[in-house]
Fold this sequence. Notes:
- The chain is mostly helical.
- The protein has a single domain (about 5-205, about 220-230, about 245-460), classed as Growth Hormone, Chain: A (Up-down Bundle), CATH 1.20.1250.
- Helix content is about 80%, strand content about 0%.
- The protein is built from 20 helices and no strands.
Amino acid sequence: xxxxxxxRLERLPLCGYHRFLLLIIGLAFFFDNLDLAMMxxxxxxxKTEFGLTTAExxxxxxxxxxxxAIGAVCSGLFADRFGRKPLFQISMIVWGVxxxxxxTATDPLMLGVYRFILGIGMGMExxxxxxxxxxxxxxxxxxxxxxxxxxxxxIAFICAGLLSYMVLPSYGWRTMFEIGAVPAxxxxxxxxxxxxxxxxxxxxxxxxxxxxxxxRIEENVKKRLKLTQxxxxxxxxxxxxxxxxxxxxxxxxxxxxxxxTACALWFFALLGFYGLSTWLGAxxxxxxxxxxxxxxxxxxxxxxxxxxxxxxxxxxxRWGRKPTCIITLIGGALAxxxxxxxxxxxxxxxxxxxSGFLMQFFLFGMWAVLYxxxxxxxxxxxxxxGCGLSSTAGRLGSLIGPTTVGIILPVAGQTGVFGLGAACxxxxxxxxxxFGIETRGRSLEEIATQTDDMTTExxxxxxxxxxx
Length: 468
């Protein structure tokens, strides 16, 4: 039986090499998210400086999401055609340039254009990070590592807030965008230390290149663990993935319900999340807090995301992707309504922090599940395209969210805003409950070649394979 690069990668013991890849890819993911999170803290100041209405500020907040939608779908298609690594580096250049240009904007229209460019780069990078990491990590810890990578999102959210707290009062929002451009230089670290995905190379018929990369990885693992030999390669228990699969194939057969489910999940989840988070600082300012306090309060609330993603990293491996996703979404909906009630009722500051902390616990836990679950649904030849399309659907939701909030706020007040967010999370949970599949405990190749009768536990699925 032919030994595939994926077979060799799957049997590797987890060690410092895998954690090093997580660190490098995770840091790139962190820097991208830092730029993305800034608008939560800067929108109130930008709105004041340019004298924008709430609807105009919402449209400006949505500008980057238009670029992210375009960047996500294009990067997925090109990454499946030309490779993960080169597109990953290009994305970092684009968002670095876009962030710097935002610092030079002299009017809202110019800022919106530059935010669009910044969005293209961010939209390219985010699905590529999850695709690339998923193709290196063995099945038994893949969910945990992907969830931990997404843990950079709440940390980036907090760091963006701390930077805003220190920089915004004295230097203004333009300096924040200048700072956000500097980490794009991290692409040289990615170029030096992150290899191309052997799974992708093999899917393109470049087996020799894939084998050479796996050879180097194996030597690295042996050196780190001080081993003379590695565990034997286990024979694959399922057939190979389709030799050629592209974007068109995602809309046929077993992959069509998967791509529709993923797109609907991302659309509703991100519509609710960004509709709230983009306006979170501005909503606090509307209750009477000044800019500095609203930024600091948002940072305090966001610390709930750290235990949230850590819990999700544990739960996706212990309970499974599907139940964890549903729990985070329903929990997020309830917590959003609780936070909205506390904020509108002007209750005590501890109550505001407690409800906000709980809200961010579930919402950032939701993010961790999204980035774990999505790349597992698609075959190697179209994984980046599938992640890109799902992300694009999410960016459409992200685009609609801030603008919708800007329209709803003057009419329905904060009650309508928080009600919209909660409804979106409930819709996303219903989609996963009805159409989602379970992927825990299965290799990427198993998931790609099995039908979607996958609601049983992995152990039962494994016994069925052995019996056949």
